[in-house]
Amino acid sequence: MNNQNSNKVTKYRKPLNLNIGMIIFAVIFIYIIICTFMYFTSKHVVAYEVKAGALSTNNIYRAMALRDEMVVMADDAGYVNYFAREGARVAAGDLVYAVDESGKLSDYINTNSSGENSLSKADLSELKTEIVGFSSTFDPKRFSGAYDFKYSMQGTVLKLSNYNIMESIDAIQGSGLDGLVKQCISPASGIVVYSTDGYEALTLEQMNEELYSQENYEKNQLIGNELIAAGDPVYKLSMNENWSLVIQVDKDREEELLEAEYVKVRFLKNQETSWGKADSYTNEDGDIFVKLTFTNSMITFCTDRFVDIELILEDESGLKIPNSAIVEKEFFIVPKRFVTKGGNGNFYGVLREAYTEEGTATTEFVETTIYNEEDEEYYVDDSSLRIGDYLVIPEGTEKYAVSKRGSLIGVYNINKGYADFKQVNILYSNDEYSVVQSNTAYGLNVYDYIVLDAETVNEDELIYE
Fold first, then answer.
1. Which InterPro entries does the UniProt record give (predicted)?
2. Which value, to the nearest 10 degrees, does the dihedral of the CA atoms of residues 89, 92, 93, 98 take?
3. Residue 168 — very low, low, confident or very high, per pLDDT cuts 50/70/90?
4. DSSP codes, 283-327
5. Rounded Cα–Cα distance for residues 49 and 296 (Å)
6. Alpha carbon of 252 to those of 78, 257, 288, 427: distances in Å?
7. Per-residue pLDDT at 361 exceeds 50
8. How confident is the model at residue 294 (pLDDT cuts 50, 70, 90)?
9. DSSP reduced 3-state for 198
10. Contact yes or no for 333/379 (Cβ under 8 A)
């Protein structure tokens, strides 16, 4: 028995040791949990500062160019060498190209060229315009455009080189090539273009949606020193400075453009602007096309079938606010003659009919906020009035039963620390922002703070920042 008692072991319990560090850590941990819970359960109100701004109704379209074009066919087979610059104006009877049956003309040109050809400022400007135009419109999904640019640059450089011997073209007559080289002149005056695409005779009445597909569009670039057959297209002439751009639009945009009659257009290729006269056509499929006719700038885009443009329709300025801040709210509408000021003359309100405990008729002043006014009526707050309340005129017997309601578009102003509705008059809107009229009696002012998302607050709700 003594041995059993001597072998019994009692477990020693350590006392709980609390120090100041553990207490501070526990307090901070509890505080973090409370803050996290409050963050996820409370409303998040984001303020937006109202600033003056503008929204331009600028709309970008890919337009199809329609011109008075004539495709010139080759009369003879052989190697073609161009001498007129692409994009240059030629008169009827001017030399445009030569056809070499032997293929030796290019060797003669290279042999008689005087070293390196220097480019004039106009030549460099032409090359830079083509490069900038390609850079701004290149679509990686349509890589074939890079080959079109390559062939266009090759043709431009070759034509600039050939142009240097135009003044000595008579020397060919004594070079032994005079019987094999035929000089070809322009049948009419116009702008020379060295490409065809089959759209030269296209009119507004033939437009359809498929014509705008880049996959279906094929541009045949005409290159110098290439072998051609008689009857092949060799170049084309744009013979009229009047030209058109056709865009596909919806019904609302069609009506807007036709109502304007003349539309300001910015060409994205060079950022220049011009005014075009609007006409429209609707095909059998219901597709609407608007044609904008210009009397200038044709020579700049004579090589382009598709031109990216921006319509500049209007430019409204005012106070710029996000669309998410806009809300629609209902109010009571009461005649102005029933609205008066309180005893101290600082607050607007109405006299509402009431009855004492003894049943005696009396009136009580009900303070109301005015949110908008028309010729004979006020929009007043509906929180202190009810449908069926009777309003009376001060020092009169005429009564008015509250029943008429109307809605206003506005935002919640939070300058005073609570959500205060302010009516706005929207001048113009896009997908994200609206421009509202400034300096209105019941509206906003520059640098006011409004609720960014109107759905996150209620009328007169206190805003904690």
1. Beta-barrel_RND-rel, BSH_RND-rel
2. 50
3. very low
4. -TT--EEEEEEESS-GGGGTT-SEEEEEEEEEEEEEEEEEGGG-E
5. 45
6. 54, 9, 10, 17
7. yes
8. very high
9. coil
10. yes
Compute how many other C-beta atoms are within 10 angstroms of the C-beta atom of residue 24. Answer: 10
Helix (H) or strand (E) holding 192: strand 190-193
**For the residues 212-232, what does the mean pLDDT come to?**
85
H or E stretch including 410?
strand 405-413
Q: Are 292 and 186 in contact (CB under 8 A)?
A: no
Nearest of 298, 295, 265, 263 to residue 279 by alpha carbon: 263
Q: Which of 167, 195, 172 is nearest to 182 (CA)?
A: 172
Structure tokens at 255: 């009506």
Q: How far is CA 237 from CA 56, 72, 113, 362, in A?
A: 38, 8, 29, 91
Q: Residue 321 contacts by C-beta under 8 Å, 6 or more apart in sequence? A: 48, 50, 411, 424, 433, 434, 436, 444, 450
Q: Residue for token digits 């104006």? A: 89
C-alpha–C-alpha distance, residues 372 and 391, integer Å? 19
Using an 8 Å Cβ cutoff, are 242 and 249 in contact?
no
